[in-house]
Amino acid sequence: MQIIAFFATKSWEEEYLKDKLKIVASDLTQIFIPEILSKEHLPSSRDFALCSVFVDSLIDRTVIDALPNLKFIVTRSTGYDHIDLAAAGERGIVISSVPSYGENTVAEYAFALLLTLSRKIYDGAHRVREETRFSFDGLQGFDLKGKTIGVLGTGRIGRHAIRMAKGFDMRVVAYDPFPNESFAKEFDFTYLSFEEVLKNSDIITIHVPYSKETHHLINEKTIALMKPGAYLINTSRGGVVDTPALAVALKQGRLGGAGLDVLEEEGVIKDELDFIVHGHPEEHSLKTVLADHVLMDLSNVIVTPHNAFNTKEALTRILDTTVEDIVGYIKGKPVNVVPR
């Protein structure tokens, strides 16, 4: 009988997975561990061959070495940069992900951040609730209609963002190393070079995966190419943006504002006490952590806690795909396997 360990699931997710797997994988023993899986949070019981994690777990070489029976990892996410693929590959560990669950979910959230900035919604709500002042003085915003939005990455989420932008009657330009020309023709937008997208856009929204190639895609030099007063929306991964460079640009008024659902070093922000107590062998960048706090304090910045994925519908799709991944592996026909 095989054992699978689920890490950091909510109670409703646990019940959902139990019910689903009871039907399709009745001989699979399930254990649920409330904490994340990382070198600082290794479970006392380590005899499971399969495990399921979310993006807040960090599966590095130390974790893999500490789990001698591990043969399969399913991450309940599209991204998999929280898993050391090389170390897993050396052990022959199969990794599956959830390639599609929230193209509309994340795109909707990107526009929620944009609208919060463009119409000063947070400022207005805070004024009414906290100051009991019912006045629109100083809350003038700007229309999305007629603005140029630059979409970085035209995968599932990026394409949905383009559909939404067209609904707002915006002009769309996009960058992708693998352009989808038929989609561009259907929705009447133009692919440009990365630099040209930055130069021509009033708003940039990021929908690229995190990788060595996209690390700090937005940095001091590329920010300098952006229109003065442009807005940046990031719902992808924090590491795509050089945080200190962004903080400086916003502080100096070079950019108009930013809507950020992800931050570099967000794990430290999420659990600063644990970081203070345990530290980290790789040494988190203190400069980046401080820049995160600067961003959170700026009036023209909206920061939310990696929440773009978080709808009941999207989470249910994640769990359903996770079950498919598990069943595929058990049957010897893995699906949604992460490429090496």
From TrEMBL:
<protein>
    <recommendedName>
        <fullName>Alanine dehydrogenase/pyridine nucleotide transhydrogenase NAD(H)-binding domain-containing protein</fullName>
    </recommendedName>
</protein>
<keyword id="KW-0520">NAD</keyword>
<dbReference type="GO" id="GO:0051287">
    <property type="term" value="F:NAD binding"/>
</dbReference>
<dbReference type="Pfam" id="PF02826">
    <property type="entry name" value="2-Hacid_dh_C"/>
</dbReference>
<dbReference type="InterPro" id="IPR058205">
    <property type="entry name" value="D-LDH-like"/>
</dbReference>
<comment type="similarity">
    <text>Belongs to the D-isomer specific 2-hydroxyacid dehydrogenase family.</text>
</comment>
<dbReference type="InterPro" id="IPR006140">
    <property type="entry name" value="D-isomer_DH_NAD-bd"/>
</dbReference>
<keyword id="KW-0560">Oxidoreductase</keyword>
<dbReference type="InterPro" id="IPR006139">
    <property type="entry name" value="D-isomer_2_OHA_DH_cat_dom"/>
</dbReference>
<dbReference type="InterPro" id="IPR029752">
    <property type="entry name" value="D-isomer_DH_CS1"/>
</dbReference>
<feature type="domain" description="Alanine dehydrogenase/pyridine nucleotide transhydrogenase NAD(H)-binding">
    <location>
        <begin position="130"/>
        <end position="277"/>
    </location>
</feature>
<dbReference type="InterPro" id="IPR036291">
    <property type="entry name" value="NAD(P)-bd_dom_sf"/>
</dbReference>
<dbReference type="Pfam" id="PF00389">
    <property type="entry name" value="2-Hacid_dh"/>
</dbReference>
<dbReference type="GO" id="GO:0008720">
    <property type="term" value="F:D-lactate dehydrogenase (NAD+) activity"/>
</dbReference>
<dbReference type="InterPro" id="IPR029753">
    <property type="entry name" value="D-isomer_DH_CS"/>
</dbReference>
<dbReference type="InterPro" id="IPR007698">
    <property type="entry name" value="AlaDH/PNT_NAD(H)-bd"/>
</dbReference>
